[in-house]
Design a protein that fits this description.
- By secondary structure, the protein is mainly α.
- The protein has two domains: about 5-190, no CATH class; about 195-265, no CATH class.
- It is built from nine helices and six strands.
- Helix 3 (about 35-55) packs antiparallel against helix 4 (about 115-140) and helix 4 runs antiparallel to helix 5.
- The chain is elongated.
C-alpha cells in the first residue's frame, strides 16, 4: 500500500487557498472584516489538526523483543521474534506493530499503541473542519444569480464541494468507528481478523476480552502510549461463560463457549 502523505498535504494546502480566495464565503468575508472570528476559528482548527496529524505520523510503537512468556504467541519469521498479545506484523512497514489497528495510507504509517490517540484526535479536528467548510461553501452556492455570473463567481467553489463532501463522509465515518473501538477496547485488525488471531479465535465474536468498561477503556486509550501498556493473553472466566449461555445473542456459539470453558477448567 503506497503512502499518500504528500498528496494529502497538497490537497489540504490547495483546498485552503481555493476556499480563502474564491467567492463570497463566510470565511473570505471574515478574513477581510474587522473582527475575523470565523476566519480565526477555521485557522485554529486547521492548525491543531495539522499538529495531531504530524503526531499521528510518528512511530506507532514497534516490537523490539519477544515478551518473557511466549506460550501461545505468534512467531514472526520476518522479525525473528514472538509478537506480544495484540501485536501484528505489517508488510508495508516491515515491522511488528504494538497493538496494531491498521495501516493508514494518508500517514504512511501503521496506527498502533503509540499514535492511535493522536490519530483519533486528528480525525476529530478533520471532521469538524470539513463540516464547517462544507456548510459554508454549500450556503454560498445556494445564492441565486444569472448563470454566467454564478459560474464566474463560484467556479472554484464548485470544484471543491464534492471532494469536501467526500472528506466529511470519510472523517465522520472514522470518528464514529474509532470512537466505538476505543469504547470497547478493540482494534480494526482484531475485528477484521477475529477468526485467525490466536488469542481471539476461540472467543465468540463481539465478546471483547480486553473490555474493562467504557470509562476504563477510554482511560487506557488516552494513556497507553505514556504508560507503555501491555496486554496479557486473555482467558474467558467461567462466570462470563455462564452469562453468555443466558444471552440469546451468543446461542449460535454455544459449542465454542463449551470448548473455551473446558480448556479454562483444565488449566
Amino acid at each position: 500500500m503506497r503512502s499518500f502523505r504528500t498528496l494529502y498535504l497538497y490537497l489540504h494546502y490547495i483546498g485552503f487557498f481555493v476556499y480563502l480566495f474564491s467567492g463570497r464565503t463566510r470565511f473570505s468575508v471574515s478574513f477581510h472584516s474587522e473582527s475575523p472570528i470565523f476566519f480565526m476559528v477555521i485557522v485554529i482548527i486547521c492548525f491543531l489538526m495539522m499538529i495531531f496529524y504530524a503526531k499521528a505520523c510518528e512511530s506507532p510503537g514497534y516490537v523490539t523483543e519477544s515478551p518473557p512468556n511466549t506460550e501461545g504467541l505468534f512467531y514472526c519469521e520476518i522479525c525473528g521474534l514472538h509478537c506480544p498479545v495484540r501485536a501484528c506484523h505489517c508488510k508495508e512497514c516491515g515491522k511488528c506493530i504494538i497493538r496494531r489497528d491498521h495501516h493508514c495510507p494518508w500517514t504512511g504509517h501503521c496506527i498502533g499503541r503509540d499514535n492511535h490517540r493522536d490519530f483519533l484526535i486528528y480525525v476529530y479536528f478533520e471532521a469538524i473542519l470539513t463540516l464547517l467548510v462544507f456548510i459554508d461553501i454549500a450556503s454560498t452556492l445556494l445564492i441565486s444569480l444569472p448563470f454566467m455570473e454564478y459560474m464566474k463567481r463560484n467556479f472554484f467553489l464548485l470544484s471543491i464541494i464534492s471532494p469536501m463532501g467526500f472528506a466529511l463522509f470519510m472523517s465522520s465515518s472514522l470518528v464514529l468507528s474509532h470512537t466505538r473501538m476505543a469504547m470497547v477496547n478493540a482494534t480494526v485488525w482484531e475485528m477484521s481478523r477475529w477468526d485467525s488471531i490466536t488469542y481471539l479465535k476461540e472467543f465468540p465474536k463481539f465478546y471483547f476480552p480486553f473490555n474493562r468498561g467504557v470509562i476504563n477503556n477510554i482511560k487506557e486509550f488516552l494513556s497507553m502510549k505514556m504508560k507503555k501498556t501491555t496486554w496479557e493473553y486473555p482467558k474467558l472466566p467461567v462466570s462470563e461463560v455462564t452469562n453468555l449461555f443466558q444471552n440469546e445473542l451468543y446461542k449460535p456459539y454455544n459449542d465454542i463457549i463449551y470448548s473455551v470453558m473446558n480448556k479454562n477448567n483444565e488449566a
